[in-house]
Design brief:
The structure holds 2 protein chains of 2 kinds.
Chain A (H helix, E strand, L loop, with lengths): L8 E8 L3 H7 L9 E9 L3 E8 L10 H4 L4 E6 L2 E6 L6 E3 L20 E6 L4 E4 L9
Chain B lengths: L11 H16 L12 E6 L4 H13 L3 E5 L13 H8 L5 E6 L4 H8 L4 E6 L5 H15 L6 E5 L6 H10 L6 E5 L8 H9 L4 E4 L2 H4 L5 E4 L10 H8 L6 H4 L7 E3 L20 H20 L4
Parallel strand pairs in B: 1-2, 1-3, 3-4, 5-6, 5-8, 6-7, 8-9
Helix pairs in contact in B: 1-5, 1-11, 2-11, 3-4, 5-6, 5-11
The chains are: A mainly beta, B alpha/beta.
The structure holds zinc ion.
Zinc ion binds next to loops of chain A.
């Protein structure tokens, strides 16, 4: 795969340097059959250094959830070799079953079937809290 | 239909209305004694708390209603592994309103997601206990006549004491409130509790010395300093007496000071103080019944 040219896929750009693997794991890219390129510590005019992930297929996932991991990233959608869309992921208002509540006193610790739901409680501080016990989320 | 899982589920206006209703109940109890006739309150105590359960049950009986439920998880289906959601769905078939206590934080939120009748959180672990806060507010209102312009001393375990945290949250919404936070270094108010104080620009001071601030206080809210909160026994022994209220320490206090305590008391308030008119912690338990009556009426949408 030529990492510069993706015909149909997604380029996740401006990832904070060192964060690419976190996003790789989060999107479960290891399960894909298509080509995936991870570029670490690329030079960036804005950030100094950045990571980039190129995925040679259209993923069927809500990429906005990436805003929780790193709100500064840009998502580029490539169709037939042309960038058709470029956007920043919005911080989602709720995230369900993406992170787990780690509070041992939380009801989710004893009731296995409950979804782990976190609500955006402070946009400036990137702060999410468990809807049950109100513990702050940590990745 | 609505649920009360946290004191923040109620607006300031609603809290004031509840206090007004409770005051009216105190003045005209006869008017209220049949308002919940044929209604049933379920008290679901997945963890025992006799005091809170009796207060809810007495409240419902005084409104002419009836009570069913369980007082500990052992005697309930929870012991057989039933989920909170399933227990609540079942109980909703039998009761018009539910007061629940559960050792796990957030259990009442789970209940409120599936309930077809109002849920009242009667305490979920160390998390929320809104009816205790309402009780504290009614006590202050009844004893001082107002909830604004007061210097409120909070003494003891301010780190883990959830009643203290939600009282701070609730009271800093009133004008002219000043807090004096009295605790050992190890048990100071955590910084996230101070956020509403800073945001609301509510003045507060911190001290380790109860005696030195006693003359300033209009309210003294005592809590228990528990042995298990200390890393070592020596610290506990060294500190525990400084936070025990005795007649000597009260000598410099105002005549119209009011002393509150969420109860149960162990030894943090000397029994020699019980007869002092400034001690209102047993009256506080009585006020707790009245505010729960007001809350049940509000949630059942029953008007006098
Ligand atoms: Zn939680």
């Amino acid at each position: 795969m030529n990492i510069d040219s993706i015909n149909n896929g997604i380029v996740i750009d401006h990832i904070k340097a060192g964060q690419a693997m976190k996003i790789y794991d989060f999107l479960e890219l290891d399960k894909l059959d298509c080509a995936v390129a991870i570029i670490k510590n690329a030079t960036s005019n804005k950030q100094g250094k950045k990571d980039i992930i190129k995925i040679d297929s259209q993923l069927d996932v809500d990429l906005n959830a990436l805003g929780y991991i790193d709100p500064s990233i840009t998502i580029n959608i490539i169709v037939d070799g042309v960038r058709v869309k470029k956007y920043h992921p919005e911080l989602p208002l709720t995230i369900t079953n993406i992170i787990r509540c780690k509070n041992p006193r939380c009801i989710t610790s004893t009731e296995q079937e409950l979804p782990h739901v976190f609500k955006l409680t402070n946009r400036e501080k990137d702060e999410y809290r468990c809807i049950y016990c109100e513990s702050r989320a940590s990745i | 239909m609505r649920h009360i899982t946290s004191i923040t589920d109620l607006s300031l206006t609603e809290i004031d209305q509840l206090i007004e209703t409770a005051q009216d109940i105190i003045e005209h109890p006869v008017k209220y004694r049949d308002l919940c006739r044929y209604k049933k309150l379920a008290t679901l105590f997945f963890e025992p708390s006799t005091r809170t359960r009796l207060s809810f049950e007495a409240a419902m009986y005084e409104l002419g209603g009836q009570v069913l439920g369980f007082s500990e998880a052992n005697s309930s289906s929870a012991a057989k592994g039933e989920s909170v959601a399933d227990t609540i769905r079942t109980v909703c078939c039998y009761a018009d309103i539910i007061a629940m206590r559960h050792p796990k934080e957030g259990a009442p939120t789970v209940a409120s997601q599936v309930a077809s009748v109002p849920i009242i959180n009667a305490g979920d672990g160390g998390h929320n206990h809104p009816t205790q806060t309402l009780t504290d507010l009614l006590t202050i209102k009844m004893e001082k006549g107002h909830l604004d312009n007061l210097t409120v001393g909070l003494c003891g375990d301010l780190k883990f004491g959830r009643t203290v945290h939600s009282l701070i949250t609730a009271m800093c919404r009133y004008p002219g409130i000043r807090f004096v936070l009295i605790s050992p270094e190890e048990l100071k108010v955590p910084s996230y509790v101070k956020i509403p104080l800073k945001e609301g620009q509510v003045p507060y001071s911190q001290t380790t010395d109860l005696m030195s601030v006693m003359p300033e206080l209009d309210i003294l809210y005592m809590t228990r300093v528990q042995r298990e909160r200390f890393f070592n026994e020596a610290d506990y022994i060294r500190l525990k007496d400084s936070y025990i209220l005795t007649p000597e320490k009260l000598q410099s206090a105002k005549d119209d000071l009011r002393i509150l305590h969420p109860l149960p008391r162990v030894n943090e308030i000397s029994t020699a103080i019980d007869a002092d008119p400034r001690a209102v912690y047993f009256k506080q338990a009585l006020y707790g019944k009245y505010i729960r009556m007001a809350l049940i009426l509000m949630l059942l949408e029953v008007k006098a």
